User: Fold this.
Amino acid sequence: MTISSPMASRRSPFALSHGVAATLVFINAWAVYWGTAVAFGVTASHPYAYFPELAEAFLAGRLWIVPPPWTMDLTPYNGRWYVPFPPLPAVLMLPWVAVAGRDGVNSVFFSTLLAGAATALVFALLEAFARRGWSQLDWTDNLLITVLFGVGSVHWVIAVSGAVWHLGQESAVLFVALAALLAVTGRSPVLVGAALALAMLARPTLVLGLPLLAGITAQRFADSGVAVTSRSGLIRLARWVGLAALPLGVAAALLLVYNAARFGSPLDFGYTRQVLYDAHAAKLAAHGWFNLRYIPENAYAMLLALPRWEDGWPKPDWNGLSLFVTTPALLLLPRARRPPVVVASAWLAIVLLLIPLLTYYNTGYKQFGYRFSLDFMVPAVVLLALGVGRRLGLGTAGLIVAGVGVNLWGVVAVYGR
Assistant:
């Protein structure tokens, strides 16, 4: 199906260039995140950041770190301490650590910069969909959906954390959004794949987001008159996927080499020896890192968990909180219909990304909401933009505003204690 009816008449009345508009979104989003940290007095670098220490180690030619006094979630091996998590945030910190040293890095400030950039890229992605005529939304509607992503989801709480777990998620979602934007704007498949490969270097399972990028590309081909169901269309799409997969293979190889250099085995991330809470360690020892028996617990935390009531007031369940409570506008995702190739590919990406999340040994504790939802928030935002029609409407806007209110509650609950 060819879709090409850009909504030129509904562009911003301020006639801002796309780059300027995205920059303004970045500045305002960052101001909200950093302002939140200032308001709640949590501007100091998180004690469990660890990536500044890892960046320092890289600059010194080491893969192991000199740990702080605490070692929770680190991995001991052969008398040394390692950060088991994939290293992208440390790589991104290298210039700052090189100039200021590890103690000069503020992981919260760094996290808010990543989060602001991710939010700006989501806005740019939504605008690119509108320019192609794939969505029917104007800039104000796209800005409101960006608000959903930025402060109407668990992204807000995560953005202000600066902890090792959340820095990985922030780095990853930024590059997933960049990859999708590059795909929509028709950039080189190698460049698109490279952006997703960087996301892999923070969260390897995000390679499962590739179907979204392939679906976007297939729709671009259809718009240019090359149907994906034709022989030439299939060959062209297969060639595109093959080229996009090259950087993904490089990223996978780098992770395998990194593991082998640290722990003597390319498949060993160091998680099995990681210092964990007793309950998590017991689950890991009994059933492994991924297991089908974890699905009920994870599905409950993601879809069904509700606040607890204490002394007549709602309190978050720190094991998780339903997505439909934290981001109720996600209830509208099934309304997305066109363009069908993009819709189908976004759903496929979400389903694939859910497989490791649902079979993972913990729900993301301790957290507000279901923090792993950030892994599939980009395809979810795409589906929302495709499913709301010509304008958001009061109902959709109300759901977004409700999500902002719930996540403000989450920010207060997490950082106001």
Residues 16-44+106-270+284-415 form one domain. DSSP finds 16 helices and four strands in the chain. Residues 231-263 form the longest helix (33 residues).
